[in-house]
Structure formats: C-alpha cells, structure tokens
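Q&A log
Question type: sequence-to-structure
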Amino acid sequence: MKTLRTIATVRQSLAGRGRVGLVPTMGAFHEGHLALFRAAREECETVVVSLFVNPAQFAANEDLSRYPRDETRDAELAEEAGVDILLVPSAEEMYPDGYATWVDVEEIGAEGAARPGHFRGVATVCLKLFNIVQPQVAYFGQKDAQQAVLLLRMIRDLNVDLDLRIVPTVRDVDGLALSSRNAYLSERERRQALALPRALEAGRAANVEDSDPVAAVRGALNGLEPDYVELLDLDGIKILAAAARVGSTRLIDNVVLEGDLK
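Response status: OK
Response body:
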C-alpha cells in the first residue's frame, strides 16, 4: 500500500489503474470502515481510501480538535484490508490560500438543520475527492443515511460520472452503530447509548403497526435528550432518523423504513 499526501502524486499513481473504488473517511478506523474497504476490494481493481479530518464540516463549537486520530493504526488496518492507496492530504492541500468555492445541496433532512454548514462541508470535500481520484465507484455507510442521500443528489444534479454504493450499518453485538465518536463514551455512557438503536427499532415496529414511529422513538429513548427524531422522505427513501447526546457525545443512527439506499 502507498501512503500519498498530495493531489499530484495520487493522480500520477492512478494512471492506468483500471476500475477505481474510493472510500472517503476521517480516519479512526473501525469495523464499519473495514466493511467499506472490503466491499471496494471485491468490486474494484484499485482501492483508494482518503483519510482527512475535514475542517469544513465542523462548526466552531464542535469536536474538530479532539476528533480521534491515529494514522499509524489506520494505515495498518487499511493495508490489512487490501487498500492500494491511502490518501492523507493536509488541510492546506485541500483548501489552499484563497479557497472560495463551496457546494450547497438544498433541503437535506434534519441533520442539515441541526448542523448548519455541515453538509456544505461534506458535499464540497466529497466533490473535491471525486475530482482528484476520479473513481468509478464511491463507498459510504448507511449510518450516515442523510449524507448518502445528499451525495446521491449532488451526483445527479452535477452530472458526476460515478456510482455510489451504500453499505449497511455495522453494529456492535449489542446493537450500537459503530462510530469513531464511540471512543468518547465512558463505560456508563456506552450502556446509556444503547437506548438510541433500541428506540429506533421501536419506531420501526410502530411503523409496521401503522402507529406513529416518531412518538415511539421518543418514548423509548430512556432519558436520552434527542437533537431530533424525524421521519424523512428523501428522494423516495423513507428514513427514521435520530440524533441524541450521551454526555458530551453526539450520536446519530437511523433505520430505513421504505426504499433502498444500495
């Protein structure tokens, strides 16, 4: 595996590499990331993983400075998973002096409303990575369902020649969705966090029974304070999504009630 840090070296290394799969990440790899790497490895001749903690998608009061970082461990896991190129650009490489161009995708769900500017940063960095790597396929996880729909819409609206693969959420044995931010949780908070996936499953059951899934989720959060619980219809995909704080840690999760993100 090559670890590359500049746009120029990535483009040079990808010349003639066949079908390229890209997995954009912010590092702190866990089994959810590895599932994306394996999916790309199965379908593509060349697998590129980007590792970039994107400052443009963090608000001033969010956790940019303490976001988990361990490049050495991440590189080892990526190589073991069969990744060919690990792209680790600096912020200066991605956003040089004078940078002034941003991508705004309108009307994207509760997460966008809860974190103003977040999706502008996501859409911008992803479009930059798509242009840098020029993959045929890009891989994302269902846990970030609203992000996936945002990117599907951006790809459609801007005529990006790219397929997007949505890989099912990977969960721990107790049902908690894997997330790099789970590392912030104390043992007690980790137990409290289980209320989030359990509440969403209660919402799924309520939907099957033609009851109110949002009310079912709120009623099952077991003391967690939600940022939002919302039933979203995003481009024909019906998603029950929630965000809640456990201590100082903000977690998101969702279940798809109708449609298919794949």
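Response note: The radius of gyration is 18 Å.
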